[in-house]
Amino acid sequence: xxxxxxxxxxxxxxxxxxxxxxxxxxxxxxxxxxxxxxxxxxxxxxxxxxxxxxxxxxxxxxxxxxxxxxxxxxxxxxxxxxxxxxxxxxxxxxxxxxxxxxxxxxxxxxxxxxxxxxxxxxxxxxxxxxxxxxxxxxxxxxxxxxxxxxxxxxxxxxxxxxxxxxxxxxxxxxxxxxxxxxxxxxxxxxxxxxxxxxxxxxxxxxxxxxxxxxxxxxxxxxxxxxxxxxxxxxxxxxxxxxxxxxxxxxxxxxxxxxxxxxx
Length: 263
Hints:
This is Na+/H+ antiporter NhaA. By secondary structure, this protein is mostly helical.
């Protein structure tokens, strides 16, 4: 059930950018924020439900590392090196504790100072993001996708395509994501807790909800964790992720082209 939970922000924004001026900037910001929160939720799912035997001493060491990171932040330390050193220790302790080490990256990012809006040039977090972005966008994500998306179709039959794993994953991405996101957004708007992104309409909001069904790399990652030592099931997950992600992308593009402004 956790496999369709995440949104591949890079692919979703890439598809959205193909529509150009048909999509207002506010919707792109909305999709970015939604996908980030979505992926944070997926990381928490990994930490809570895909954790092996817990080592209390290592967990305490990890918590101590987080406390040091918080202290560095509160003391106003702007140098990146201390954060990176403690972050590496945090990753090691988290890995040895039995909790999935992806949580270490989230904790580290939350502790590195962002700075004030008028101090962007001296923001350690933005500086680190600028340094990492080319490597992540052009190396890590493509290599991960290439290495994990490959699946042999020779053993995939119609019966297997309609099996519970590929069908459940595909429908979770294609139907579950768009229905859940659009329904909750609509309820929040109707209740006065939120409003439509500036310059957008209900059709465009639905189109963005459909694009959130592009799980791809994050869903593949969770799928590998969900079925360790079961390559056949992992292959079925890959098929479901690919089908669900492609159909979600196509549906989102069609809806956004239909309801988007021309220009």
